[in-house]
Every structure is written in structure tokens, then in C-alpha cells.
Amino acid sequence: MADSTGGTEHSTGKTERPDGKKPEEPARLAGHWAIPVTGDSLFTWDYASDSDRLLRLYDKGKRLQWDAATALDWSRPVDPGDPLGMPDELIWIADSELWDRLPESERAVVRRHTAAWMYSQFLHGEQGALICAARVVQTVPGIDAKFFASTQVMDEARHVEAYDRYLREKIGVRYDITASLQGLLDSIVRDSRWDITYLGMQVLIEGLALASFGIQRDLMKDPLAKAFNAYVLKDEARHVAFGQIALRDHYRDLTDAERREREEFALEACWVLHARYNGEELWRNLDYGAEECIELTKRSASLRVFRYRLFSRIVPALKSIHLFGPRMRDGLEKLGLLRFAAMDINAIMEADSRAADEIELAMRRQQIEAAIEIGRSGRTGVQDDRPAG
């Protein structure tokens, strides 16, 4: 079946390129990845809430549940060569002579595989968030935090469902989890302490997600991708706010040794996100000269924008939750990230909340308009069988 890449789509999901080369799709996920876990499952007999803020987030999480199967119009077609409506400014090699030399058919291959690599990592990360949220329900001591984490379990399950469907039905190519993301998830899940789960998932990995979703919200053009991103964004904004509220009070009373251990964990994660999030698996699969593409990616303007969005969230968040001792400041300085400490995390979270509310309002308007249209169509199709007179 011919597609806009100029190649042929086979049942294996491989794309035959016009130059005769066949980039192999990474191995389909199979089997299981098992991580040994320890720790206690905590019951509480104190059902009184200690945090009105967490209860408000819980109430909001209940109200804003959505069904991925019905909320999104899966019948809408996408461009096979650009399934997200991704502008070239988001392609990491687009500002290079290599990109200039590629014919349009080859650029379509890069766009499609970039979308596949990105959404595959979202899929794997969302499953990690699903596992972590379920563990938080078990291990966090407070009932209000258990309440909220239970809504997050449903949120993450819905995200996994939707990303998997988008990859299968709209993109047709899937990438395995990157070694850096897998290593980070391993460190988070293996640790039995609930606050490390929060720190790794709610502050670091969800910060990564929000940075990417914010860019997509602003720049993606495909209507299905934009609608999908909007739904996920409003969920993730709640999750990040949850992590901030829960950790801020807990970390205020850490011992020096406890604080140092958590700062070392966060610094290692920052290094991974800064140095190793470069699409290496994508470029080695496409084989346009993997080493050149990786180097181009590291220097690209689009990656700098992504890193700015990412660390403008993570660094002030770390400061806000009291993980900002000398070691942390020194480590961030070496990574060139200390400048983000001056940013106001409360203002950023308020902006996230406003964006989520605007998305919710727009979706409600669309639902109301759709219901009105259905009502009009129903009225025009009904015969009046009442007798005259």
C-alpha cells in the first residue's frame, strides 16, 4: 500500500525507502520486564484528610475523567508521512545541510519515525507512571494522597491505551523503550520509599511530559493529535501539582543525609534527561549516518527549546520542594541549568492550571455544540404523526 513517504508499508511495519534501503522497525515489544520491589503496603485507620489542596485535586480528578475510545475522533485520517502535523522546526536535524539534501519523500520518513519514536517513549513512560501511581496507593501513608493517586492510576491507564492505539492505527511504527528511560524507571520503581516514587515520577518524568506536551500544544497541527495532547495535558498538570504539594511538606523536615541522597538521585536524573535524550535509537534505525544525526541533534535549536521547557519546570520544582543544597546547586551549575532556579514554580503551575481549565472549557463547548447539532438533526428527521386539527 503506497503512502506519502514514497515507500511501501508491509505487514511487518517496515518501510521500504525510495533508495532501496529498508530501515528495520525496532523489535516489537514482547514478554515482560520484571523489577523486584520491596516495601510495605500501608493501611491507615485515620480517614480524616490532612490536606484540602489534595482533596481539591482529587475532586477535580474525579470530575475530569474521560474515555479515550469516545472522546477522540479516531475515524479522522492523518497524513501517513506526518501523522502528528509536526512542523519541521521540531525535527532535530532540520536545521542542517543533511536535511537540505534529503528529498521530500525521505523527509516524510523522518517525520513519521520521529513521531513514532516520540510517542513510543510517551507510551512506555505512561506505563511507568501507571505502575508508580499504583505503588503510591499502596505505600503513601495519608488517605488523601491515596485518594488522588487512585485517580492517577485511571488517568495513566487511559494514556497507555490511547498512545498504543495512536501508534498502531495512525503511525504504524513503534520503538522500544530507550536505555536511558528504562534505567530511570528502574531506579524509581526499585526503590520502596513512596517519596522517591513521587520525586522520580511526579517531578522528573512528568516534568518531561509536560514540557513536551506544551510544545505540542503550541505547534502540532493535526486535529486528532492536538485533541489527544489537550486531554493528556490537563491530566498531567494535576499530577505534577500533586507531587509538588505532597513533597513540599515532607522534604522540609529531612535530615542532611536524607536530603543529600535525594539530591543525588535527582541530579543523576537531570543528567540523563540533559545528556541522553537525543533520539539515538531513531537515528541508528533510519541510518542516514547515525553519528552525524546524533551530533546534529545535540546542537539543534529545537532540542535547546525542549531543554529550556523541561528544566524551566524541573529546576524550580526541585528548589520548591527543598532539594536545593550546595551539592544540588553545584551539580546544576555544571550542567548549565542553575539559571532556571530563579523561575517561579508557583507561576508555572498556575499557568498550567489555567491552560488546563481553558482546554476543559473548550472541550465542553465542543460537546455542547455537538449535542445541539445532534438535536437539530433529530428534529428535522422526525415525522409528526399527530392528527391534523
How would you describe this protein?
The chain is an all-alpha fold and 389 residues long. The protein is 66% helix and 1% strand. The chain has a two-stranded antiparallel sheet with strand order 1-2. Helix 10 packs antiparallel against helix 11. It is globular and about 60 Å long. It starts with 7 loop residues before the first strand and ends in a 9-residue tail after the last helix.
- CA-to-CA gap between the ends? 62 Å
- Class of secondary structure makeup: mainly alpha
Provide the gyration radius in Å: 23 Å
Low-confidence stretches: 1-19, 24-30, 380-389
- Report mean pLDDT, rounded to a whole number: 85
Strands, total number:
2
Percent range of helical residues: 55-70%
Strand content: under 5%
**Helix tally?**
14
**How would you write the strand order of the largest sheet?**
1-2
What can be said about the biggest beta sheet? 2 strands, antiparallel
Order of helices and strands: EEHHHHHHHHHHHHHH
Shape: globular
Describe this structure in a few short sentences.
The protein is mainly α and 389 residues long. The protein has 14 helices and two strands, in the order ββαααααααααααααα.
Could you give the topology of this structure?
Layout: E1 8-9, E2 15-16, H1 52-63, H2 68-71, H3 97-101, H4 104-139, H5 143-171, H6 179-190, H7 194-219, H8 223-252, H9 256-275, H10 280-286, H11 290-299, H12 301-320, H13 326-334, H14 345-380
Antiparallel strand pairs: 1-2
